[in-house]
Design a protein that fits this description.
This protein is of the alpha+beta class. It folds into three domains: 119 residues, Rossmann fold; 124 residues, 2-Layer Sandwich (D-amino Acid Aminotransferase, Chain A, domain 1); 59 residues, Dna Ligase, domain 1 (2-Layer Sandwich), CATH 3.30.1490. The protein has eleven helices and 13 strands.
């Protein structure tokens, strides 16, 4: 097949996305597909079809990495879709979305592709929007009986004066733990809200009850729920650096937990996946307190596919290689 792997884009998660994209592209190349890795923001200025671009840019291996510093996407003013992106993707058999954050994950790009009749991997625009907006997804989870931490929403530090501490502060529409702070004091709360606002596109900040406990993640692939993986950061919490820098976090899969707890998380992951209308694949993140009460943190419609990402590790525990995982996502999407 002719496959565009679309990555990067105008997002603070663009390095994570390019790294995911390079790994996906290499896996699909190894399966015998004709693959182009394209940066959503840059595009392919000189070529307006897959075949012409592939003739120029064909390669056998892509390589990107995630630095410790969060990219400053504000250095890319103006357009969000690069030159000839729609033309090149439209002339391929399918586009593999390796995008994180921005229009690639909030449903906008999926809606544009639908208008142009361009095939792509993963969930549609409606479910992508619901999963990306933490406020909407938490309200839906609460309505459907899926346990999640109590929360309030603020748009500035003045609105947070009577909030009971400790809390977790995060933007409502960002991923990769970017802009998230654990807060124990009023002074920290003001700084955390200011920091979260840097990464919020709608000026809404989620202030959640802080749940002390162990962190897990559970993936869904088609109708199959993958084994739970436990995340144990070497220090601090599971932030941007601990997610994407090797050796910062111990990841145990299958998680060393009793069958009853594992089954509860698997059922909740699948329920959240269906409730949001997600398709093909997703990943749900959990916190489990000392009483083994389970809380859903969030649901990811486009889970990371970097060398340290969780969904590939969970699939591997079931004997699904990374190459087979990428090809299955393509086949299920088609």
């Amino acid at each position: 097949m002719r496959i565009v792997v679309l990555a990067g884009g105008k997002s603070s998660e663009r390095e994570v996305s390019m790294t995911s994209g390079s790994k996906i592209a290499n896996a699909l190349i190894s399966k015998g597909h004709n693959v182009l890795l394209v940066d959503l923001l840059v595009g392919i200025p000189d070529y307006s079809s897959f075949d012409s671009a592939y003739g120029k840019y064909k390669t056998e291996h892509y390589e990107y990495g995630v630095s410790e510093v969060i990219p400053n996407y504000e250095q890319y003013p103006g357009k969000e879709i690069g030159t000839n992106v729609l033309e090149v993707c439209g002339s391929a058999d399918i586009t593999f979305f390796a995008l994180h954050g921005g229009i690639g994950e909030n449903g906008k790009l999926q809606a544009i592709f639908d208008v142009y009749g361009i095939k792509y991997t993963g969930s549609g625009y409606q479910s992508s929007l619901l999963a990306m907006d933490k406020l909407i997804s938490k309200e839906l989870m609460r309505f459907h009986g899926i346990p999640t931490a109590d929360w309030t929403v603020v748009s500035n530090s003045e609105q947070a004066q009577e909030i009971e501490l400790p809390v977790v502060v995060k933007p409502t529409d960002s991923g990769s733990s970017i802009g998230i702070s654990l807060v124990d004091t009023e002074e920290e709360l003001k700084k955390a809200i200011k920091e979260a606002l840097r990464y919020s596109s709608n000026s809404k900040i989620l202030v959640e009850e802080k749940i002390e406990g162990r962190e897990f993640s559970v993936g869904v692939l088609g109708n199959q729920v993958l084994p739970a993986i436990e995340l144990i950061p070497k220090s601090g919490f599971y932030d941007y650096q601990h997610k994407y820098q090797k050796g910062r976090t111990e990841e145990i899969v299958p998680a060393s937990i009793n069958d009853e707890l594992a089954e509860r998380m698997k059922k909740l992951a699948f329920k959240a996946h269906q409730m949001l209308g997600l398709s093909v694949y997703s990943r749900t993140d959990f916190l489990v307190d000392s009483n083994e009460e389970v809380f859903v943190i969030e649901v990811n419609s486009l889970p990371g596919m970097t060398p340290t990402s969780l969904l590939p590790q969970e699939a591997k525990a079931l004997g699904i290689t990374f190459e087979d995982l990428c090809e299955e996502i393509v086949e299920r999407s088609l």
